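Q: Entry one of two.
A:
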Amino acid sequence: MATYAGGTAVKRGYYIDARKFELVSIQQDGGMLPRGAETRWLRVPTLLVIAMAPALGGLFVVTLPFVGFGVVVCEIAKRLAPGAKVSAREIAATVAPAWVPGEAHLAGAPAKDEPAPATSDEEVDALAREIEAKRSPKS
């Protein structure tokens, strides 16, 4: 099989660009191949083209259902993705620990629902006097 550059005058027949899998039919002798000189065309015998037609048609018939199912699955995934993203974010927030850098809860996290025990001023004053007594030097 001979190769020809794009823009070359060729005999009539079928030519294929192997890089783009484009098949071109030249109707008359002296017809020009499409595109520039950087494109390489390969002459394909007519009997091979006739033999390839049913094979390519059969391949199309076999792969078309898979393509259809693939498109449906892709569309369903596109529609479900935003909901799954939100759900994943909520689950991650629930499972993630409430970690704050620089904070240490050595005895566990403080209770959030229970109010702090109310201390009277008398108890605080008594504790302050006791601390002051221990700090002052004994004379």
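Q: Entry two of two.
A:
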Amino acid sequence: MIEIIPNWHPIFVHFTVALLSISVIFFLLAAVFKAHKWHGQWLTVAYWNLWLGVLFTIATGVAGWLAYNSVAHDTPSHAAMTDHRNWAIATMALFFPLWLWSFWRYRANKGPELVFILPMLVAIGLLVSTSWRGGEIVYRYGLGVISMPKADDHGHDDSSSHDDSSSTGKAHSDSGKSESAKGAKKPGKTTKRSGKKATSQRHAQGSKDNH
């Protein structure tokens, strides 16, 4: 089995959130636009996403429980992790009865009535809150993360900054080399000019002595 850090919970949870959210969206569409020509298709999509979403929720919950009892953590992160677990349990406790109820409603050809839509909205609200807390324990507390980069003053505005900085550094380097080369040439020219000047002075002095 492929090893996922900390386990398969981060994989399954995305299916849970996506499928159940899509289900609620299409139930709402079917409830608001009852006379629309796609009303039947919207209901079908809503039911299938709910059924699949709850199945993935079972896998998500099991993997989450295993992560809760195995991932390394400290006291503050333990409190955050427990809070996330409690919200997850409440969310699943509401979605499971709705899941079972939806089978009966589907077989009875029931439309998306308010008595069913309201609990679905409450359930998706719980799911959003649970997801938020799940993100907190990873991104705020670092649970399930093997290592984190050491913070420094490095920063850039866009992805091309590294290339730009490299080009800038190269330009500075080339400029430095050019200046050094010019500096190296200048003493030679000065020496040559000084030599010519000294020779001219000697010739002038010799002419005076002859006179």
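A: Comment on entry two: The mean pLDDT is 79. The helical segments are 9-32, 39-68, 75-107, 114-139, 161-210.
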